[in-house]
Amino acid sequence: CARWGGDEFVILQKSLVSKNEAYHFSEHLVQQLREPIELESGPVIVGASIGVSVFPEHGATPDELLEHADIAVYRAKCMRDGVSLYNEQWGKEAAERVRLAQALRTAIETQTLAIAFQPLISLQSGQLKGFEALARWPQKNAPPISPGVFIPLAEESGLMPLLGNWVLKRSCEMLLEVAPEDKLRVAVNISVAQLLDPDFVNEVFEILEETGLPPQRLELEMTENLFAKDVNQIRGIINQFR
Question: What integer pLDDT is reported at residue 228 of this predicted model?
Fold first, then answer.
C-alpha cells in the first residue's frame, strides 16, 4: 500500500486470483474505512472510492494497470459507488476525462488556474459596485478550457470543495489588491458540494481572517438547485453565514 498523491492511495494485491475476489476485497476495505473514528469533538466517518484493474486482463505493465485503475476510481466517484472494476468498453472518452481530472487537481494544487473579475455596475447610477469572480483555466500551448467543461468535471470527480476553496481565497486576495480601501464587494459562486461540507463555514471564516477582507465585502452566490437537497441543513448553514 502506498500513497500515490493527495488523498489517493494504491494497493498492490498479489494473492487474489479473480475479479470477484478483487471486488469483494475492495468492498470490505471501503466498509472498514467507514467505521467511525472517535475524536474529542465527536465521531468522524471517512468515505472512499476504489477503482480496480486486474493483470493481465486490464494491462500488462504497471503504467497500464495504474491508468485503468484510475479510470475505474473516477467512474466509482461519478456513479457514487464505492467500488468499480475497469471495463474496456468505457473507451477513450473516459480515459481522457480521467486525465483531465488529474490535470485539474494539479492545476488547483499548483495554483495555475486564474480568476477573472467581471464588473458589477449599478444601472441607476452607472457606478461600479463590485465584481463577480469567475474561475478560468488557461493552457500554455492551447486555448483555455471552458468553465462549462472543468466545473462539471470538478463536481463529478470530487474536486469541487478543493476548487471552490481556492477560488474563494484568491477572490478575497484579489479584491484587496485592486481595491484595498474601497467598499467594493466580490461575489463568489458556491456549489452544492461546498455548502454540504461540514467544514465549509469554518473554512470561509478562516479565509476572511487570513486575508483580512471585511465580511461585508464578500457575497456568496447560491443557485436555486441547492434547495433541492436538505433544505433544513442548508437553512442552518445560511443562518451561520448571516
Answer: 61
What is the per-residue pLDDT for 71?
Answer: 82
Flag residues of the chain having pLDDT under 50. Answer: none
**Closest-CA residue to 131 (of 238, 52, 218, 44):** 218
Helices (H), 110-159: 147-156
pTM: 0.65
DSSP 8-state assignment for residue 186: E
Total count of residues recorded for the chain? 242
Q: Which residues lie closer than 8 Å to 71 by C-beta, 6 or more apart? A: 51, 86, 90, 94, 95, 98
Give the per-residue pLDDT at 40: 87
Distance CA 55, CA 65 (A): 7
Q: Could you give phi then psi for residue 53, rounded to 5 degrees? A: -125, 145
pLDDT at position 80 = 64
Residue type (1 letter), 103: A
Give me the helices (H) in the chain, please: 19-33, 62-78, 91-109, 147-156, 160-178, 192-195, 200-211, 231-241
SS3 181: coil
First to last CA, the chain: 45
